[in-house]
Prior knowledge:
15 strands, seven-stranded parallel β-sheet, three-stranded antiparallel β-sheet, alpha/beta
Amino acid sequence: xxxxxxxxxxxxxxxxxxxxxxxxxKMTIRRDLSxxxxxxxxxxxxxxxxxTSGASVEPSFQLKSVQMVDxxxxxxxxxxxxxxxxxxxxxxxxxxxxxxxxxxxxxKIMVITNSIPVVNLLKGRxxxxxxxxxxxxxxxxxxxxxxxxxxxxxxxHADKVFLSTQGINEAGELTVPKLPDAHVKQALLRAxxxxxxxxxxxxxxxxxxxxxxxxxxxxxxxxxxGVPDTLTAQLNGHVQLLLAxxxx
Length: 248
């Protein structure tokens, strides 16, 4: 478990305990905590740090990319099983979506995306036709996030859309820290006939500033064991939960 994962779970950490747990110096731990503080996601104290609770705070893409890597890999692999040759699919921004894209190399599909890392990963693949959404680049998501992006997706009709989110609260609402990102995700959701949400277990029980959808909006939710009962109870007849760490 990483330092950030411990912060998400316990809401606070102690430098001495982390140094002992990871077998590193206190200075190393303080440097890592200082990095988190610069992003606005923790406040440091003399002996440790605590997680900030701001609804508009979002970790950087670089930080998110090293969290729950194995879980995202499994979720991405499970999601790729839903992609068939000939599909036109939309891929949202996010580190879990980037993990998903790694399993598409041998597919014969059209991919529409606003994610620059996904573009860089899939460009030049023989069987993949790639369309890049326009807009203003936003570094925390490493993608195009603006009204121009939303307008582009308002005119798209794809077979499947694969979405991410930053938080899913107890009421089944999907939320992200920034309003422009929420607006783009709403447009992406409307643009796909079949709607698939990719969300690791760290996303559940969290609420951020801007809502962009609900559990009931999706055909598939791909996650892991441990999804809260309060959310599974909200799954209606057309929403199927797929657990990436459980045999089919």
